[in-house]
Amino acid sequence: MGVWECRGDVDDMWDRAARCIREKASELTDFGVLTINKDVKKKKDLLKMSISDLWHDLKSKLHCDTLCVKPGRDGCSTGVARLCCERDLAFYVNALQDCLPRIPPNSLSKAHGMIEMPNPPLELLIFEPFVETDDIVVASKSSNENAHNLLWKGDSRWVEVTVGVVGKRGSMRSLTPSVTVKESGGILSLEEKFQGGTGINLTPPPPSIMSSSTLERCKKHIGLIANTLQLEGFSRIDAFVHADTGEALSEQPPLYPQHFFRTLLDLASERSM
Fold it and tell me: How much is the pLDDT for 53?
């Protein structure tokens, strides 16, 4: 049986996919697919720990100065934040302790939009290195308000992409990747990710960001991830891709349609009670 089956709950599905990624990480590295180091913490343990000790422990384990925190087993932008210092970590942990529904804009040291927190709160938190990407901005030309320029500094060569994969198990193929223009901050807001008319998706990424040859290598790597995870049907994979080499840095396990809609129905049922 494959990693993804229609039976079983979402937590079990997530655990199996995460375990598969860890087991295959070294094998995929040889093909240009990297995985992000992670440290998973229980919420109840976080609330008992010294913030200073926790911060230094995470930096040491993950070998980075800036962290990304996200709720475990959640497939969107809820609760995802960039932590640059102990103060940021303390603020986030306090938000968890107080069960805040959202973190107001610019509460952390790096500018950001509204951060919606999971409801109901989740019990596992994932910490990982924050992957620095340059903002992609669409700016109007002064002489023509209907014409636009695409601005991308490109100092960091990593680009965040969303890719659909489709096919039968063992022969999944990657569709053309999309990059999303962010309004502000380093992480897409819920509105930018899902609300129509808010975020701007560029499909395919413009040649000024990713060449056609790099794009093809990216699609090959995404297809490799899908087939390694034994996906079938249709799924969405989020990854960071190097704009020059097409190397893929995979994020959390992909979201599979049956479980996505089952999760939505479960949440809707819980909130209507």
Answer: 95
11 vs 168: which has the higher pLDDT: 168
Strand ranges for the chain from DSSP E:
33-35, 39-42, 67-71, 81-83, 102-103, 115-116, 124-129, 136-141, 144-152, 158-167, 173-174, 179-181, 200-202, 233-242, 248-250
Give dist(CA 124, CA 18) in Å, integer: 14
- Based on the fold, state whether residues 62 and 162 are members of the same structural domain: no
**pLDDT exceeds 80 at position 106:** yes
Query: Domain for residue 259, yes or no?
Result: yes
Residue 5 is assigned to a structural domain of this protein: yes
- Mean per-residue pLDDT, 62-89: 87
What is the spatial distance between Cα 111 and Cα 96, in angstroms, rounded to a whole number? 20
pLDDT at residue 188, rounded to an integer: 56
- For residues 136 and 202, the answer to whether their CB atoms sit within 8 Å is yes
**Which structural domain, as residue segments, surrounds residue 161?**
1-36+156-273
H runs (alpha helix) in 64-171: 86-97
Residue 178 and residue 102 share a domain: no
Cβ–Cβ < 8 Å for 182, 135: yes
Query: Both 167 and 272 in a single domain?
Result: yes
Alpha carbon distance 116, 102 (integer Å): 4
d(CA 88, CA 82): 8
| pLDDT at residue 209 in the model | 87
Q: What is the CATH number of the domain that holds 53?
A: 3.30.1490
* R_g (Cα) of the chain, nearest Å: 19
pLDDT tens digits, residue range 117-131? 888 777 889 999 998
If asked whether residues 93 and 60 sit together in one domain, one would say yes
